[in-house]
Write a structure and sequence with these properties.
alpha+beta, 3 domains, 3-stranded antiparallel sheet, 7 helices, disordered N terminus
């Protein structure tokens, strides 16, 4: 009988210890000490070393967990920002405005996914009638400039390119700019800007290089290798730019030379008409 009683006593102690241990192991987050892993944050929103406070849930978590959560959140937000697509016709264009950064861009329908994707950030506005970026209107002169500078070509090819260019809702009526119009795009070179001392001008009928061009007044300003397009409004509005044809020919010999502007220096010069120079159309 005594042996049975001792056996029952040891058995009861064993069961009690087992139950007590289980209770301690199953602590909830609310039972964990403040500042510990998955415990509540301290009042100043800090935790023990190696932990960070998840202020949204007011619990302490590992630093790596917080970083992973933020990455997932950022990825989701990024996907939401770009999820503006819907089924469309291949080749179709549409405008979209990002109100957060005040930028408009033209979207083109992808032929495979039949969804719009980002296509071109507009320098000015997007034309809702065409879904394409509008050509840039210079607020100083009211001249409208093509958004696209074509590859280098001869003067004859440049004239033809502009005559056949179709861009914007107004379509055609583009032309190669005169030397005066092209000079309106020069900035920060006092001698060759449109009101500068260089006399070369179609408007003033002064296209003789011998009479109207001087090295002092027309040869531009200092070249800066760090800013190769330092003297061009086009660099600000359109991006990179260098030499551009004008439609203005020399009136003296050789008369098969036309004026152009090198926007890396702001210089006004004349080249043989078959030389290869870039072109930007105007209207």
């Amino acid at each position: 009988m005594r042996k049975i009683s001792l056996f029952l006593l040891f058995f009861a102690i064993f069961i009690f210890a087992a139950c007590g241990g289980s209770k301690n192991d199953d602590k909830t987050d609310s039972d964990r000490p403040e500042g510990s892993l998955y415990g509540k944050c301290y009042q100043n929103k800090t935790c023990n070393k190696g932990l960070e406070c998840d202020t949204e849930n007011n619990i302490c978590i590992k630093e790596s967990e917080k970083s992973e959560n933020e990455d997932i959140s950022n990825t989701d937000e990024s996907n939401n920002d770009e999820d503006d697509s819907h089924e469309c016709e291949p080749g179709e264009f549409a405008c979209k405005k990002d109100s957060l950064i005040n930028i408009e861009y033209s979207m083109r329908c992808d032929s495979d996914s039949l969804e719009y994707g980002k296509f071109e950030i507009c320098k000015d506005t997007c034309d809702s009638s065409t879904g394409k970026c509008s050509p840039w209107r210079d607020p100083d002169t009211n001249l409208i400039w093509s958004l696209h500078a074509h590859i280098e070509m001869s003067l004859e090819e440049a004239i033809s390119y502009c005559e056949n260019l179709k861009e914007g809702s107004e379509g055609r009526n583009w032309r190669l700019p005169t030397i005066d119009e092209l000079r309106t795009l020069i900035r920060d070179c006092s001698s060759t800007v449109i009101e500068g001392t260089c006399k070369v001008s179609a408007d003033n009928d002064c296209l003789s290089q011998k009479e109207c061009w001087t090295e002092e007044d027309c040869n531009g300003c200092i070249y800066d290798s760090n800013e190769p397009n330092n003297y061009s409004k086009m660099d600000i509005i359109f991006g990179s730019s260098t030499k551009y044809w004008s439609a203005s020919f020399r009136s003296d010999y050789p008369s098969d030379h036309a004026y152009f502007i090198d926007f890396s220096t702001g210089a006004i010069s004349a080249y043989y008409k078959d030389s290869q120079i870039s072109v930007r159309c105007v209207k």
